[in-house]
Design a protein that fits this description.
Largest sheet of chain B: 8 strands, antiparallel
Strand content of chain A: 5-15%
CATH superfamily of chain B: START domain
Distance between the termini of chain A: 49 Å
Order of helices and strands of chain A: HHEHHEEH
CATH class of chain B: Alpha Beta
CATH class of the largest domain in chain A: Mainly Alpha
Helix content of chain A: 55-70%
Number of helices of chain A: 5
Strand order of the largest sheet of chain A: 1-3-2
Distance between the termini of chain B: 62 Å
Number of domains of chain A: 2
Number of strands of chain A: 3
CATH superfamily of the largest domain in chain A: Winged helix-like DNA-binding domain superfamily/Winged helix DNA-binding domain
Helix content of chain B: 25-40%
Order of helices and strands of chain B: HEEHHEEEEEEHH
Oligomer: heterodimer
Number of strands of chain B: 8
Chain lengths: 121, 170
Amino acid sequence: MVQWAQANFDVSFGALSDATRRGVLEQLGRGDASITALAQKFHMTLTGMKKHVGVLEQAGLVTTEKVGRVRTCRLGLRHLQEEAEWIETYRQLWSARFDELDKVVETLKRKERGDGRAKRK
Amino acid sequence: MDERRGSEAAPTKNPTTVERRSERELVVTRTVNGPARLVFEAWTKADLFRKWWVPRSYGLTLLSCEMDVRVGGGYRLVFSHQDSTMEFFGKYREVTPHSRLVWTNEEGDGGTTVTTVTFDEIDGKTLVVLVDLYPSKEALDADSGSTGAMPESLDQLDELLVSLRSTTTK
């Protein structure tokens, strides 16, 4: 579960680290769109847009469906269906972060004790 | 003092909770095993801060970390992830040693998110409460992903989720 969530986070993070892809998600939030339409909207080649959509699709943020010659993109809900799921991912980040913080604080405490012994203030 | 060291040598990991308090607020809570002044120090000195802010398992590299922790002072974090670089920056609004920090997250174009962290010491341990306050629900909806670093990138997921919900429940 932990590994899954982190892998998921990693992929999502990569997918969201690009301004165009965020723009695509925002656009799809307003309505489904074909890859051609998205390419035009973002002044991009079809190949370029296909790549971006591919990354979003891998992250489960977008799904695509080909009908005839048109590939339509819509927001995918695979990973982010539940807010609880997102919250859990966020919680795991903070949990990992605070675990590291505990270590840093523990080191500071040891250092202080060492100094205290040396100085006996 | 010395007899206490045995039990402190292997501190237990305390639970971390995350709660959405409103459309605009997200609250993270955790007790850290140390006095508030040390937790505050770890939060305000760049060389300490960078040791814990980016958990090793997340595949991110903190390229640089500048922090001028005083009211009106700025911070700037630069991360690399795979082939991209991201910068997150803002200013400290409140700096109350050992008890409270408030900073802005200004990299987003949908307004400024304000983060408030409080440190409450209880029996040598510190209760840390972190609140992210978004400028508005509208800003949050409109700004579908630019507000920042690790938590901020998760803000992006959050914002996305809000817009997903608004479109799927129409």
